[in-house]
Amino acid sequence: MILEGVSPVGWLLAAAAAAAYAVLALAARRIGSEQARLVMLLAWALHAALLAWDLLHGQPHFGFAQALSITVWLVLTAYVVESRLYPQMRARWALAGFGAVTVLLSVLFPGAALPATTSPLLPLHWALGIAAYGLMAAAVVHGWMMNRLERQMRQRRPARVEEGGGVPLLTLERLMFRFVGAGFVLLTLTMLVGLFFGGGGAWRWDHKRVFTLLSWLVFAVLLAGRWWLGWRGRRAVHMLYAGSVLLLLGYVGSRFVLEVLLGRTP
Q: Could you tell me the residue range of the domain that residue 215 belongs to?
């Protein structure tokens, strides 16, 4: 139910994190690079504190909004690390906007209480799945920057630093495929673990599993095409987008329909 189970501390952390993200999203191009980096680190830390509070305070809840919030936080974590290795990579304003939206969604739609489980594989299944979401989302961000940079090169316009224009196109492409490869491995492990934690190895053809399997097939074809046929550029990015949409529909989409549209808990 909307707003159920949200503590005052959770609201305070969410408001502080969303405000920091909003400042960065609206003023990233007007403040200095060092100031923007500090605001990003502050927003990232407040977001992490909110996730930890929700997990450790009382009975944890989880739903589509929490999955999105953790996914965006993982993408921001990857970005914080990468921005130290590639200082010219700048996509703070876009990531900050997503951060603000997902933080607010996580308190507006806190999801359902996590059920008690006797299977040690269920937490592993969730952890692997969320990590796979984060890696694929990071790949999507790099694909988006690739498309922006390639479009500007075709139009012979100088790429702005805020859009990743200072990073060579081949570097962005290489990073994108590294994230896709790592995410594909974790997604494969997620599906394998999911076969056994509750159903004794039986596969149930529900919406979540069908969309997840379809996304796995798209990512498998993408990596095979890259390895054997040298796929790159817009074809690769479009396949990445298609697989990511299917993956998003697999869990977040189905939970959104249940929690928001139908008002039911899974």
A: 117-266
pLDDT tens column, 21-56: 998 888 766 777 778 888 889 999 999 999 988 877
Tens of pLDDT, residue by residue over 130-165, are: 999 999 999 999 998 888 888 777 776 555 544 444
End residue of a domain, out of 73, 91, 112: 112
Give residue 38's pLDDT: 86
Q: Answer yes or no: do 108 and 80 share one domain.
A: yes
Residues 151 and 261 in one domain: yes
* CA R_g for the chain: 19
The answer on 125 and 41 residing in a single domain is no
The one-character DSSP state at 226 is: I
Q: Is 147 in the same domain as 227?
A: yes
Q: Where are the alpha helices (DSSP H) in the chain?
A: 8-27, 33-56, 64-85, 92-108, 121-154, 169-194, 207-224, 233-248, 254-256
Q: Which of 112, 131, 163 is the last residue of a domain?
A: 112
> Regarding beta strands 61-62 and 112-113, do their DSSP bridges make them parallel or antiparallel, or are they unpaired?
antiparallel
Phi then psi dihedrals of residue 113, to 5 deg = -65, 135
> Which pLDDT belongs to residue 164?
47
Task: Please give the distance of CA 21 from its chain centroid, rounded to a whole number.
Answer: 16
